[in-house]
């Protein structure tokens, strides 16, 4: 609950970094779009007319890449998987930064 609130605080303050990550060609080509359960309206404490309400409504921030059995069984699967992780890294770094700092960017101890 606290983590979700912290992520929403960051998005409400400045949604541009997250939008840049999830709209990058490497991200969209690999994952398509951000996934996860969403509220029907703005979460409690956030303005329904906020320009980033589409991101604030997320209850989960999921990045999904499906693999076929054939892909998983291929001898090069580990290399391909590493490529996918590298494409996910900006998203992971963003979330890690948000969840390890307060709303002023100060590291949480």
Low confidence ranges:
none
Category by helix and strand content? mainly alpha
Distance between the termini: 18 Å
Q: Please, what is the oligomeric state? A: single chain
Following the backbone from N to C, one meets helices and strands in this order, namely: HHHHHH
Strand content: under 5%
Helical region count? Answer: 6
Question: Portion of residues in helices?
Answer: 40-55%
Given the C-alpha coordinates, what overall shape results?
A: elongated
Mean pLDDT: 96
Largest sheet: none
Instruction: Write down how many β-strands occur, each being a DSSP E stretch of 2 or more residues.
Output: 0
Rg, alpha carbons: 16 Å
Layout of strands and helices, then pairs:
Blueprint: H1 2-13, H2 16-23, H3 25-31, H4 53-56, H5 69-73, H6 77-99
Structural account:
The chain is an all-alpha fold and about 110 residues long. Helices cover about 55% and strands about 0% of the residues. The chain is built from six helices and no strands. The model has no long low-confidence stretch (mean pLDDT about 95).
Sum this structure up briefly:
This protein is mainly α. It has 6 helices and no strands.
Features:
109 residues; elongated; mainly alpha; 6 helices
